[in-house]
Amino acid sequence: MHDPQLQNCEDYWVGRFTAMASPCEVLIDTQDPILAKQLAGIAQQEALRIEHKLSRYRQDNIIHTINTAQGAIVKVDEETAHMLDYAAECYELSDGLFDVTSGVLREVWKFDGSDRIPSPGQVKKVLARIGWNKVHWRSPNIRLRKNMQIDLGGIGKEYSVDRTVILLRDAANVSCLVNFGGDIATTGPRRQGKGWLVGIETPDAVPNTVTASTKVYELQQGALATSGDARRYLLKDGIRYSHILNPRTGWPVQGAPRSVTVIADTCTEAGILATFAMLNGAQAEAFLNQQGVKYWCIRG
Amino acid sequence: MQLKKPKSIRGALATATCALLGSQTPQPAVASESGTNWEFDSALLYYSEKDRVTAVEPVVNARGDLGNDRFINLRFVVDVLSGASANGAVPSDRTQTFSGPSGQKSYTVAPNQTPLDPTFEDTRFAASVLWETPTSENVTSFLGANFSTEADYTSIGVSGTFTYDTNNKNTTYTAGVAFSHDTISPEGGAPDPFTEVPTGLTGGGEDDEGDDDHEGEGGESGETKNVTEFLFGITQIISRQTITQINYSIGQSSGYLTDPYKLLTVVDPVTGDLVPGVDPNNTYRYLYEKRPDTRTRQSLYWKINHQFTDDVVYLTYRYFWDDWDIKSHTVDLRYRYELGQHHYLQPHVRYYQQTAANFYHYFLVDGEPIPQYASADYRLGDMTTTTIGLLYGAQVGKHSEFNFRAEFMKQSGESHPAEAIGKLRNYDLFPDVEAIILQASYNYNF
Questions:
Q1: What pLDDT score does B188 carry?
Q2: Which of A234-238, B96-100, B242-246, B347-351 has the least mean pLDDT?
Q3: Fewest CB within 10 angstroms: B36, B40, B132, B192, which?
Q4: Residues B334, B335, B336, B339: what is their CA dihedral angle, to the nearest 10 degrees?
Q5: CB contact, 8 Å: B19 with chain A?
Q6: Which of A170, A190, A210 is the last residue of a domain?
Q7: Are residues A41 and A167 in the same domain?
């Protein structure tokens, strides 16, 4: 593990590292390089800890243990139990659209820009192995049916941003902005009550400009998260299949925006609202309007 | 998602998130559009018609970003106008002499020349303020006020425009209303329509004449004009590269809509010659014009902007019609060609075509009844205006842009209308107006 790269910018320090397959950075409102190094280190450790814990590519973590238990009961640690409780709550609140058991759909859906659409039969076969309602979960014990899997990656990055914010708040009374691959939260206002400047790409309706522009927001408190990735799709017979899959049908959600960005009190909440909005497809904006949050959807 | 409890989901999620993070209720998010940035635009415009009006117009515009999507825009304009403008009379083989409404400032037009009033000189100051603020989640309001004054004209106005964003800000509906109240106080008072224009015979008599004529009229208080205008529009983002807009506007003007400086020549029905004034003090007979005291104007406006990889094309079309029977079409095309390294060229072509007002007359005919309304103001006649131009822009440093624009404009109408009588057939009754427009602008962003 490399130490975070430190850089001095105007009146703050930035620590950069890579975790969860994303560029990560922490902006630290201090002139003190030693404090900056210490705080960047805390952020990196926490990001890597959660990556290690939730990665579905590892064979030495709790996710692997659960997914390979072959129908046996697995007792999980307290943090994992909280995440499973959260996943259960999200499943309920979304009427089954947000489902941590839906990852197995990736076996038939490969979003590589190609035209390889699975057959309805293939999708149906996988669908039989999906459904949080088929999971036996009574904290701290979980039992999956054989061939089922869970994946907490959908909430892991935002969760690690919030966890890092909590640790940084405890470590020093210095404002930090945590940015893990575009999922962002701040520990609080900067010196002199200023906020951190965050650029958000928005389609611009100002006359005489047609380019998408970056609006700069000053984030004093709270978090934002983005869901969506323009490059992940399939195209067949002129139909664009988004990478957002409906776990109830096994097919891509129709009419989902290209990306959704939400501002909320915590990064986890912003992230789940953005994900729910994507799962609402064409009704993404209507859903977000009902929630009364500040958001940006990019379509087209 | 078919949410059964749509309203409650956010609260439930927040509670679940708190449980997950093992923390107390988080501080609510505070995010605002950043900064209190000021952007200054200054420009100097030079407009010069061949042999006619020249205008020099400095403009300063300041736009302040007050944060939280609030903006204030302040604008100051000074217009310095001088030169000659067509007074409405037709050319003749005689020397023609005209004077202002109260008999002063007389001027003489040589034979065979289009009569131009060379005393045209004015300085106009205008100031406006526009306040933009979000009023609810998807509604933004724009409240404005403006004031302008020149020697004989004062205008005050207020406006309110509201935009409603929907479809995730890809569609914006606009509704606006504006009122203005103008006061027109020509030197010596507004002349009575269709009275004879004093033609400036030398000697003291004509001064008295003028004063007597106008003392009892509108006089110092001036004439007034009110304008109410409504606008409705839809702006649609079609893709990341394309935006389009359609506006409809309807406006009603009422009050004094006549131009106190425009007149009509009364000509002989056979020869087209000037005829002597009915008033023996007037060498020839010219009448002050008269326009209706209401005008309802409507227009449809369509705009599309499209960005190619770097270049941008701006196309607009406007159709205008009013109850004076003026109909016009305007097509305006600009193409922003990026030269790279923050330099660009922007060619511009504009074509404008209008039909005449139903009371437009090149002249009046002696012996025929005077129509209810009449004006020989060429701006109310059939005409086409073509403008071509080029703008060069360059970014200078990190925060500023400089641009320079040069345009050529030509207005043409019916030079030899069918109704021309006798000698008038030999004259150009609608001489082309040619103008050059030069503008230098500098924009600075703090």
A1: 78
A2: A234-238
A3: B36
A4: -140
A5: yes
A6: A190
A7: yes
pLDDT digits (tens, 9 = 90+) for B186-198: 887 888 999 998 8
Same domain? A45 vs A166: yes
Taking an 8 Å cut-off on Cβ atoms, the answer to whether B170 and A95 are in contact is: no
Last residue of a domain, one of A125, A151, A177: A151
Q: What is the ipTM of this complex?
A: 0.84
Question: Does A174 lie in the same domain as A79?
Answer: no
A174 and A36 fall within a common domain: yes
Range with lowest mean pLDDT among A11-15, B22-26, B94-98, B266-270? B22-26
Chain B residues lying within 8 Å of A269, measured CB to CB: 13-14, 17
Sorted by where each starts, the structural domains of chain B and their CATH numbers stand as 35-445 (2.40.160.40)
Residue A251 in any domain: the answer is no
Model confidence pLDDT, tens digit, residues B382-404 = 999 999 999 999 988 767 889 99
Q: Is A249 on the interface with B (CB under 8 A)?
A: no
Q: Are residues A217 and A133 in the same domain?
A: no
**Would you say residue A239 lies in a domain?**
no
Please compute the mean of the pLDDT values over residues B421-430 and round it to a whole number: 94
Closest CA of chain A from B165, distance in Å: 10
Average the pLDDT over A88-92 and give the result. Answer: 94
Q: What are phi and psi of A42, to 5 degrees?
A: -60, -45
| Angle subtended at Cα B287 by Cα B281 and Cα B290, rounded to the nearest 5 degrees | 150
Q: Which of B2, B71, B240, B441 should be substituted to probe chain A, the one whose Cβ sees the most A Cβ atoms within 10 Å?
A: B240
Contact A160, A168 (CB under 8 A): no
Is pLDDT at B330 greater than 90 in this prediction? yes
pLDDT at A82: 94
Extended strands (E) in A54-168: 73-75, 136-138, 141-143
Instruction: Locate A287 and state its tokens.
Output: 């859903």
Q: Which of residues 154-193 of A touch B (CB under 8 A)?
A: 159, 162-163, 166, 188-189
- Kindly list the distances between the CA atom of residue B37 and the CA atoms of A202, A219, B51, B62, B342, in Å, as whole numbers in the listed order: 19, 17, 44, 10, 22
pTM of the model: 0.63
The answer to whether A24 and A43 are in contact (CB under 8 A) is yes
The A141-143 sheet, strands edge to edge = A73-75, A141-143, A136-138
> Are B12 and A89 inside 8 Å of each other by CB?
yes
The answer to whether A202 contacts chain B (CB < 8 Å) is yes
d(CA A240, CA A254): 9
Closest CA to B99 of B214, B184, B183, B257: B214
Do residues A104 and A67 share a domain? yes
Give kind and range of the element (H or E) at residue A268.
helix A267-279
Q: How many domains does chain A fold into?
A: 3
Q: What's A47's domain CATH number?
A: 3.10.520.10
* Chain A partners within 8 Å of B231 (Cβ): none
Flag whether A20 is in a domain. Answer: yes
> Do A118 and A209 have their domain in common?
no
- Tell me the residue range of the domain where A105 lies: 62-151
- Compute the half-sphere exposure of residue A230: CA atoms within 13 Å on the CB side of its CA: 6
Do both A208 and A263 map to the same domain?
yes
On whether any CB of chain B is under 8 Å from the CB of A212, the answer is yes
- Tokens coding A173: 């009374």
Residue pair A73/A142 in contact (Cβ under 8 Å)? The answer is yes
Q: Do B169 and A219 touch (CB under 8 A)?
A: no
